[in-house]
Amino acid sequence: MEKDKLAMEVNKRRTFAIISHPDAGKTTITEQLLLFGGVVRKAGTVKAKKSGNFAKSDWMEIEKKRGISVTSSVMQFDYAGKRINILDTPGHEDFSEDTYRTLMAVDSAVMVIDSAKGIEPQTKKLFQVCRMRGIPIFTFINKLDRDGRPPLDLITELEEVLQIDAYAMNWPIGMGKGLKGIYDLFNQRIELYRREDKNESFLALNEKGELAEDHPLKSESIYRQVLEEVELLQAAGNQLDTAKVAAGKMTPVFFGSALTNFGVKTFLDAYLKFAPAPSTHKTETGQEVKPNDDAFSGFIFKIQANMNPNHRDRIAFVRICSGCFERGMDVTLQRTGKKLRLSNSTQFMADTRETVEEAVAGDIVGLYDTGNFQIGDTIYTGRTAVKFEKLPQFTPELFVKVTAKNVMKQKSFHKGIAQLVQEGAVQLYQSYSTGEYILGAVGQLQFEVFQFRMKNEYHSDVVMESIGHKIARWIDPAQLDEKMSSSRNLLVKDRHGMPLFLFENDFSERWFKDKYPDVKLTAKL
Ligand code: G4P
C-alpha cells in the first residue's frame, strides 16, 4: 500500500472496547452502534446470538452452551468516514484473562453504566486495566428510560470510586416515565426524548444556554431544575480538558437509553471527535513503532481454540500495530525467528466471518493457527526485528487442584497442561509440600475451557477440585522460609519456579504481614 494511502487508512481507524458489568446494556448499545454502521439490519440480532437462538454450527461447544458468540469478538463497521473496530470484553461468567488482554489491543474504551446501579465490581476491574494503559475512557450512563439515581450522585460516585475526573457532555431532563430529553452541553442543544421509531428532534439553545424558541418544555419545572444543575456544573464542576481526556485522566460522560436508541447517536458522533486513531506501540527495547511505518507488525493478544470441532482449529487474534496486512504475506514470528505465510486469515463482521485480504494498523485480524502462536507473540515483516513489550500478567483470583482422571494417562496430561499453560490459557502452580498441580485463573470460564480442551485436544480427562478464591502474593526467594507456610496460606511455585503464597483472604494476608513485617509480598511477579 502506498504511504499516503496507508496514512489515510490508519487515520480512519477507531478501535475500542466496551467495558461494563453484566446487564448494564453493553450488548444493546453495541447493537445500536452496528445499526448505525448498517452492519445489522434490525435490532435483536446480536441479542439473539447471545441467548443462543442464532444457530452457528461451528462454535466451540462450550461457547454454544454459554451462548458466547465468537464472531462478535471483533466487530467492524464504517460510520461517518471512520472504520470502527469494537472488541468484545465478555461479562463476569465468561470472564477470563482474555478479557483483560483484549484491553491491550484497543486505543480507547467506552464504559457503560446502569443509571440505577452506578459503578459495579466488573466495571471497576476493567476500568483499572484501562487506567493502567492510560487510554481515553468515555462513559455512557444507560437506561435513562427507567428510574435511576440522580445524575449528580452518579457523577460523584464515578469520580470518587474510580478516581477519575468526569465531565458531563450532556445532562438528563427527567428520568423513567418523566424522561423529557437530554440537555446537550457539548452541542448546545436539547435532544427531545422520542420513541424508538421516530426521528431525532433537537431544539437549539441560545447563548445563555436556554431554549432559543418557545416550547412547552420551558414551562416545566424539570427544565428549570436542569438549568440550575447545569449552571452548578459549569461553575463548580470540571472544565473539558482534551489533554486529560487523551491521557485517560478525565472521562467525558454521556447519558442515554440504549434500548430506546436515545442519545446513542449523539454519543457516537461526539465520541468520534475525541477517540484517538491508532497510536504508536513500544517495543521491549523502548523503540516506538509508528502505525504508518511501511513494515507490518502486530501482536497476538488472544487465542481462541477449537471454534470448529471438525477441524480442531484455533484462531490467533492479532492487533496490527504498523503497516498493512495482506493475505498470503510472509512474516517473521519473533519468538522463534521462523518465517510464516499468513494465508489463512479472517476478519470478523457482526454475523459473518470473512476472509480478509487487506487490513491496516488499528485493525484486528484472526489467523488460523495450527499451534504456531502464543499469547504475546510479535509478528513482523522487514529486516528489523520487532518485539513488542510483554503483555501484563493478571494476578489470578480463582484456583483449582487438577489431576488426571486416569493415572495411566500421565503423558498426555502433562503434555496438554504444558502446552495450554504456555499458550496462556491458564496459570500453573505447584504446591511446595505435595507437588500437586494447581491452576489459577481470573474467571471460571478459563477452567472450563481448559478441561474441554484437555479432553478434546489431548484426550485427557481431568479432575478439578476448587480451592476457591485466593490472594496470590509473590515472595522474594531469599526471604522465604518454608515454615512460613501455615493452614491459612498455601505455598506454591509458579511455572518459573518462583515462590508465592495463596492466602485464604485479606485477614490471613494481614496476619502474615504482622508476623513477618520484614518480608516483602508483591501482587505480581
Ligand atoms: P449486557 O450486554 O451489558 O449484559 O446487557 P444487555 O445489553 O444484554 O442488557 C441487559 C438488560 O438491560 C436487557 O434486558 C436489556 O434489554 C436491558 N437494557 C439495556 N439497555 C437498556 C435501556 O436503555 N433501558 C432499559 N429499560 N433497559 C435496557 P433483559 O430483560 O435482561 O433482556 P431482554 O429480555 O430484554 O432481552
Automatic annotation (TrEMBL):
<dbReference type="GO" id="GO:0016150">
    <property type="term" value="F:translation release factor activity, codon nonspecific"/>
</dbReference>
<protein>
    <recommendedName>
        <fullName>Peptide chain release factor 3</fullName>
    </recommendedName>
</protein>
<dbReference type="Pfam" id="PF22042">
    <property type="entry name" value="EF-G_D2"/>
</dbReference>
<dbReference type="InterPro" id="IPR031157">
    <property type="entry name" value="G_TR_CS"/>
</dbReference>
<dbReference type="InterPro" id="IPR041732">
    <property type="entry name" value="RF3_GTP-bd"/>
</dbReference>
<dbReference type="InterPro" id="IPR027417">
    <property type="entry name" value="P-loop_NTPase"/>
</dbReference>
<keyword id="KW-0547">Nucleotide-binding</keyword>
<dbReference type="GO" id="GO:0005525">
    <property type="term" value="F:GTP binding"/>
</dbReference>
<feature type="binding site">
    <location>
        <begin position="20"/>
        <end position="27"/>
    </location>
    <ligand>
        <name>GTP</name>
    </ligand>
</feature>
<dbReference type="InterPro" id="IPR009000">
    <property type="entry name" value="Transl_B-barrel_sf"/>
</dbReference>
<comment type="function">
    <text>Increases the formation of ribosomal termination complexes and stimulates activities of RF-1 and RF-2. It binds guanine nucleotides and has strong preference for UGA stop codons. It may interact directly with the ribosome. The stimulation of RF-1 and RF-2 is significantly reduced by GTP and GDP, but not by GMP.</text>
</comment>
<dbReference type="Pfam" id="PF00009">
    <property type="entry name" value="GTP_EFTU"/>
</dbReference>
<dbReference type="GO" id="GO:0006449">
    <property type="term" value="P:regulation of translational termination"/>
</dbReference>
<dbReference type="InterPro" id="IPR004548">
    <property type="entry name" value="PrfC"/>
</dbReference>
<dbReference type="InterPro" id="IPR035647">
    <property type="entry name" value="EFG_III/V"/>
</dbReference>
<feature type="domain" description="Tr-type G">
    <location>
        <begin position="11"/>
        <end position="279"/>
    </location>
</feature>
<dbReference type="InterPro" id="IPR038467">
    <property type="entry name" value="RF3_dom_3_sf"/>
</dbReference>
<dbReference type="GO" id="GO:0016149">
    <property type="term" value="F:translation release factor activity, codon specific"/>
</dbReference>
<dbReference type="GO" id="GO:0005829">
    <property type="term" value="C:cytosol"/>
</dbReference>
<keyword id="KW-0342">GTP-binding</keyword>
<dbReference type="InterPro" id="IPR005225">
    <property type="entry name" value="Small_GTP-bd"/>
</dbReference>
<keyword id="KW-0963">Cytoplasm</keyword>
<dbReference type="Pfam" id="PF16658">
    <property type="entry name" value="RF3_C"/>
</dbReference>
<feature type="binding site">
    <location>
        <begin position="142"/>
        <end position="145"/>
    </location>
    <ligand>
        <name>GTP</name>
    </ligand>
</feature>
<comment type="similarity">
    <text>Belongs to the TRAFAC class translation factor GTPase superfamily. Classic translation factor GTPase family. PrfC subfamily.</text>
</comment>
<dbReference type="InterPro" id="IPR000795">
    <property type="entry name" value="T_Tr_GTP-bd_dom"/>
</dbReference>
<keyword id="KW-0648">Protein biosynthesis</keyword>
<dbReference type="InterPro" id="IPR032090">
    <property type="entry name" value="RF3_C"/>
</dbReference>
<dbReference type="InterPro" id="IPR053905">
    <property type="entry name" value="EF-G-like_DII"/>
</dbReference>
<feature type="binding site">
    <location>
        <begin position="88"/>
        <end position="92"/>
    </location>
    <ligand>
        <name>GTP</name>
    </ligand>
</feature>
<dbReference type="GO" id="GO:0003924">
    <property type="term" value="F:GTPase activity"/>
</dbReference>
